[in-house]
Design a protein that fits this description.
mainly alpha, 12 helices
């Protein structure tokens, strides 16, 4: 089977879940070992930045605070998981040179550890998200089941992307300079600080893109952005608004395609990856 090598590598990495979970937690603690607030600094910085941004942007764009602040905070929460899985995924394999060259180790272990690390970070950001809502006295009613499904979809996509880009950057190091710049552009092109219907028309205070009038030129611009689908399957359940089924289908399809492509590339290049590190 063409994916057999990649699947075997992924299964071997999943069997070591205790190790990459411990290493991810150790990385989180080590990065804040000498700071006064420790790992709480991640949540505190999210609270300060997003809390102030929510107030300023809601004022500038004349949006109700109780609508815009949770929208922005949930979008930032999702983006802070999606973006690093791409930018840090570029160096996740080259950065693990010492581990991979010293002993036989599944290459998929490194993207899984990266995903686990950012899931831990997302947990801290989620606490800050709750604190922001409390400060502004905003109540949302999340859907835990759909939120869990959305997180699984985004995590699968993130691991597949990190595996795919991590292997690609082993052979093409220039990607490590190009893609982070493109991600900075993608942030502004994705509905995170702006609401989609501000661009496509319809009710500007509606949280998701309005498809009741069909596809227009501007709505197509939003809907061609793959990051939008991944944000919506997390942001929608988190804020308690309904996400159209097509969003779930597109997000899960892209996630599956990314994982399959990552495993395919791994199957074809695994013998050469160590030699090129």
């Amino acid at each position: 089977m063409i994916l057999s090598v990649g699947v075997a590598d992924l299964v071997a990495a999943l069997r070591r879940h205790e190790l990459w979970r411990v290493l991810a937690l150790y990385q989180l603690k080590r990065g804040n070992a000498r700071t006064k607030f420790g790992i709480a600094w991640h949540g505190l910085s999210f609270f300060i930045l997003v809390g102030l941004m929510g107030f300023m942007y809601a004022t500038f764009m004349h949006r109700p605070l109780d609508l815009y602040v949770p929208y922005l905070a949930a979008g930032q929460l999702g983006w802070r998981f999606i973006s690093p899985m791409i930018t840090e995924g570029l160096t996740v394999i080259t950065g693990g040179r010492g581990l991979l060259t010293q002993r036989p180790f599944p290459i998929s272990f490194l993207p899984l550890k990266l995903a686990c690390y950012h899931l831990y970070l997302s947990g801290l950001h989620a606490i800050a998200f709750i604190a922001i809502l409390a400060i502004y006295r905003i109540i949302v009613v999340p859907n835990p089941l759909l939120l869990a499904i959305g997180l699984v979809i985004v995590t699968v996509a993130g691991v597949g992307t990190a595996l795919l880009l991590g292997i690609a950057s082993v052979f093409h190091r220039w990607l490590q300079n190009l893609i982070p710049s493109l991600m900075n552009l993608a942030f502004f092109l994705t509905p995170i600080i702006w609401m989609p219907n501000m661009l496509v028309g319809g009710d500007a205070n509606h949280l998701s893109v309005d498809l009741t009038h069909g596809f227009t030129g501007r709505s197509t611009f939003v809907l061609l952005n793959p990051f939008y689908y991944f944000l919506e399957v997390v942001r929608g359940p988190l804020l308690g608004y309904q996400v159209p089924f097509i969003f779930w289908f597109v997000a899960s399809s892209i996630a599956a395609a990314l994982m399959i492509c990552g495993l395919l590339i791994l199957s074809r290049t695994k013998p050469r990856i160590i030699l090129n590190l």
